[in-house]
Fold this sequence. Notes:
Chain A is α+β, with helices and mostly antiparallel strands. The N and C termini of chain B lie far apart (about 25 Å).
Amino acid sequence: MTDQLLQRFIPEARDLIETSASGLLRLEKNPKDDAAVNEVFRAVHTLKGSSGLFDAVALTHLVHAAEDLLSSIRADELILDSTLIDMLLASLDQVGCWIDHLERDNCLPRDADGISNTMARELRSLAALPGSAQPTDAAPPLLSGQAADLDPDWLDGFSEAERREAFHRLTAGATVLAVRYVPDEACFYSGTDPLGLVLATPELLVAVAHPVAAFALPPDLDPYRCNLGFTLLTTADRTDVEMHMRYELERVEIRLVAPNDLISVAGLPTDAPVWEDFREEAGELLAAGDLVGLAARAATLNDLMGPDLAAVAALRWLATLLAAPTQDRAAIAALIEATVTGRFVAMPRQIAPVAQPSAAVPSATIGSAPRPHAVVDPHARAFARSILAAQLGCCEGIGFDAARLVAPGRVVGNLMASLGAGDVTDAIANALQSARDTGSAAPFLRLVDRLDAELAEGCGATAVPTSASAPVPAEPAPWHRDDRPAVSNHEEVRDDDARPLTHMLKVDQAKIDLLMNLIGELVVSKNSLPFLAKRAEEVHGSREMSREIKEQYAVINRLAQEMQSAIMHVRMLPVSDIFGRFPRLVRDMARKLTKEIDLVIEGEDTAADKIIIEALGDPILHIVRNSLDHGIEQPSDRLAAGKPATATLLLKAYQEADNVVIEIRDDGRGIDPAAIRAAAVAKGVLDQARADALSDQEAINLIYHPGFSTAAVVSDLSGRGVGMDVVRTTIEKLAGRVSVTSRVGEGTRTRLSLPLTMSVTHVMMVEAAGSLYGVPMDLIVETVRVPLEAIHTIKQAEAFILRDTLIPLVRMSTLMAQPARRRGDGSEEAVLVCRVDGRNVGLVIDDFREGMDILLKPLEGIVAGIKGFAGTALLGDGRVLLILDLKELL
Amino acid sequence: MALRFGEGEVHFDDHCVVEDAMPLLAFLEAEADPQVRLAHCTGMHTALIQVLAAIRPRIGSWPADPGLARLLGGLMGMEPT
Amino acid sequence: MAATILIVDDSATMLMSIEGVLSKAGLTVVKAASGEEALAKLKSGSKPNLMITDLNMGAMNGIELIRNTRKVAGMQFMPILMLTTESQQDKRNDARSAGATGWIVKPVDGATLLKVIGQLVPGK
């Protein structure tokens, strides 16, 4: 049921988000638009309600915060300003991303809780300050990341054995969730039995209860007032837990448990010197990577000491960690430390796990490849410092004893080497030597101090976990800054993945393609009917039969064509699919550029082939960005030029014969042909004389010239460093054309014209006479390599035998009047056997290349008259591929 | 009735429901050193477990369900046997 | 002893379909076609282990029924589920404060319903 509901919810949620967003944009123009406020509020309210049905607590939480804010606005307690609109839009974007995630994975991403908390907190902080437009940057989300972390006291009630069991599950690959449930004290009166619910939790590991307040004594004890809270550990999915507790979700908190959360060292204190020795040895073994040795050493000590000691608890955990499939070195180090201190101070989650113990390496060879300090994980440094401190402690404790300084010296050497901090073996040897010479440990201690200080530089207050392999503790990105909210990351995702999701009718593209192929075959097969008619008349002498076949052919022909055009229309999408994102984009950019822009969209119902629509997004985006960035002036400049302060940007689509036309028009400053000429000359695109000879329109057209990109034309906001030539290439690849007209001071109009539907031709690329050509696949019978000796010359004509049939050979190099450049060792020829006009012909080429789908463009311009080519196609790299017309050639 | 009251002891049988909470509390208060036998108890309402947690009577036998026994033991500061 | 479930809905189809699911699962079903009928049954000593009620019903709606049920002796702690549609989200909180334990979204999925009943009526 959930699945069906979810499928219904997702499109509904997208609609609601869209409604809210467009309402917000309307509100920005006119904050007094009560209808819009109500519309946005209702949409957000409905979204909140529906989302409550699913495993989307974070989503509901955020939408709830947005709803509260809107509610204050509706009640006139809060004035809607651009900051608020920004935040609301960012929240909606976030929700949109989560909806996509829900659709893909049936759940929210892992960081959702954290992001939701941060964003909701900011929304609420604004709602609490009526009328305030305080920049939210002033209150950075200090708690980011911690929101989803597990508070250690959650696990207080669990025994060491229970924690260890959970730890085993975790290291065996399960996820362990901690769930805290504090029921409403009146919950019995609504038929809820929290204990039953808790004990029935799916995949429950262990559950504990604790009184919320001290129990009253009889007669004040009310057994019907729930005074218990529960904490439980489970290996079930979050979804299942939330489903199980769905009526109580408001009273439930769920956290992901990390292995280190489970480790706790508790027990009797001890100050036996054996632990100091153990720490020293264990630290050394760990630094040397000898985990097997370390485990053995810990096991020995464990057997000797009483189980109630905190230090022994640390040993037990040490054994657990060492036996895990992967080892967390920082945690191991912290446990070694805990054998002496009796406290486990968890290193933050963590250094790259070591898959298997590495062999101890002799110190002399360590550090042969020193790495700069910067690459060392700050946690590793922090840990290293603790080892150094321990070594210092040892040395200071024992006073000067040359023999006992050797071991710490080795530890320090290995440690620095393992950190990649460079080879300090010599420095240590020197320090130890001078220690012996002076009869004091001081030189060695100074060295250790210095190393420690060096490490400290790398793990100061600014250091943050950077290890890529560290499990990322949900760290919500800061989401509202002056430049671009974190949502800009999501924008990429939306552009790439999410957009196709929005179409209601989802048909696998492959199914449509199959249909198209079948129709293509039908078209080809029906072409045999005229031959049949001819045979009926000529061979069988039945004129009547021939006529009937021709009549039937006419019918089938028409049907086939209709089918073809129908299937083409199935692939048609409205341009609103791409236009839809521009209101928001233009608004955001205009705000950023402090320009005032009114976006007008026309003809969004105009439809075109899916491929065309999808490919149009980027070029239009590029042109719009150019226009906003460079075309449209600042309001003050516009006023000075006698234009209204608010610029108009028109996005218009319409159909013109078999083409769809997209027009992007602004009333900005226009393109200055003189500037283009100058830039073109400066770039070496053409010389001054030719530049001067260009008409203004020709000069403007230069912006499409590859290699022509000036700051005056290419948008820095697009940030891709591509010029308008890319726009042209993209459009031409789709068999379309681009034109731009502009008048200085009045504006620029860019016109993209593309075919409504696509006809894709499957060709094989061949290399012949040193160039690449395309041969339509349906003409190719097969490809063979023919040994030279198998080629016969009959009356100056070449031929070869293929399966008892004589195939005449034609050399491409001869056809093209170019020298052949044969590949391989020259002992054979590459032959493309083609069927042309009912007979097979072998075309000798230089080499075969891959097959590909192309959009055939007829020959135009100066090459229009050349015989032998069916047309051209633009390759992905911008080169032009000539498609051979074999009928004409042979 | 899932609670069986005997001489100084109460037996929990099967699943014991919320309505049993008041009689249980009355019994535990009336007895000087009441004993609670849970060997046949398969489950109990939250109201019952919190009465036990508040009064802390002697537990003569523990529930067979390890999850329930563990939770009750933790709540009463006792080790289930 | 099999658990007894009281179903309240003014739609005969709904009553039948839920009854089908529940009796197939071995539960005893008592039906009521209105809030008034349900209340009368409860007052005359019927003691179901759980009640399922629709939200929108003629004179007495589901929320009123729940509120009234909680006033009947012995009915304070009975789990009550309310049938809602997706568009009646906001009614859930009302239902909760009137004393409902949870809700079931229509169209009712048999497996989900049985799972919820299993949770709310332990030991049966």
